[in-house]
Amino acid sequence: xxxxxxxxxxxxxxxxxxxQLELRCAMKYELQGIDDWQAGETQLLLKDKVFIRLATIPWxxxxxxxxxxxxxxxxxxxxxxxxxxxxxxxxxxxxxxxVELQTVIATVVMNTKRIQALDRKPFTYISDxxxxxxxxxxxxxxxxVLPGEKTSEGTMVEAVAxxxxxxxxxxxxxxxxxxxxxxxxxxxxxAGAYKxxxxxxxxxxxxxxxxxxxxxxxxxGLGTVRVIDQVKAxxxxxxxxxxDVRALYGVLMADDRSSKGYLTTTSDFAPKxxxxxxxxxxxxxxxxxxxxxxxxxRLEFLSGTKAL
Length: 308
Description:
alpha+beta; Trna Endonuclease, Chain: A, domain 1; seven-stranded mixed β-sheet; 29% helix
């Protein structure tokens, strides 16, 4: 039986262009590990466009690791490393420059020592941060809201599900996990937030044809207040622009039943965006901008774990 953990190492290493070897700062590839309990070994997979096998590390200390490299790379392997690694060429593997190759070899050697020094209890070599990544990867596969009936605009949200609270708990422990959650799942999380906040009708719009509205929420009292939310699940450094905000206002104007639009992002907004001559008069009456920091604060409050 094979037990897979896609977050065993999760070493995103990119080259340090000063040619100083730094295992946490090298290349454009992602290295992940698979535990094969039947064979008693860990396979390291290198992700470029697809996953390819890079190395096999036997758990027994007396057995050497096997490293697969493109034949054109073998000539660049330092002689001192040839005695510690078995090389088996495979044409499909990418080629590396000299410094990248050093990083690959050093990474395999480092993980060989770490893996063979352990008694192979499940996941003992996964750090706490990687445990959280693995946990949230599992949670995003589960429903975070309970769907109701279909409408012409999307699916009604009846309530939040247990994974909604579990994801929020993990985000409190490590806010950076927000960037590991897919965009569609963020739309579900925010739809759940409106439901948790007491809105009577919450609609999660379809992935396509949503007319620029990811979530629609209505509060019914003496009258009906209807708001729309556009969710942008961006990575750090990918900022929401003034054009994005103006586009949302256009969406709001086209929806004659809605009184306010929210633009929610996991990242942030461009500098001085709020001072834009066309945007400033719209905030906060017609538009409200929620960045990643404010988003997490609101979710903490709604989960009942923190006061605003």
